[in-house]
Design a protein that fits this description.
By secondary structure, the chain is α+β, with helices and mostly antiparallel strands. The chain has helices at 9-16, 20-29, 47-57, and strands at residues 6-8, 35-38, 42-46. It is built from 3 helices and 3 strands. The protein is globular, with a radius of gyration of 11 Å.
């Protein structure tokens, strides 16, 4: 069984071509779904969630949120 890759905020931001703080804001307000590990370790975002965000969110204008 293959597990899904979890991206750091920085990796997700690089793929989305946005600032990491934008990704953190979207995670906090629920625009992007992720997992908060610990305060120090930060968030992880499943690759499938980035695909969903790009496919759905871009059409609904969520990227500008």
């Amino acid at each position: 069984m293959q597990t899904e890759r979890l991206l750091t905020v920085e990796e997700a931001a690089k793929q989305l071509r946005v600032h990491p703080e934008s990704v953190r804001r979207w995670l906090r307000n629920g625009t992007i779904h992720g997992h908060r590990l610990t305060r120090r370790a930060g968030w992880r975002v499943p690759e499938s969630e980035l695909r969903r965000f790009l496919e759905e969110g871009m059409h609904e204008g969520k990227r500008a949120a």
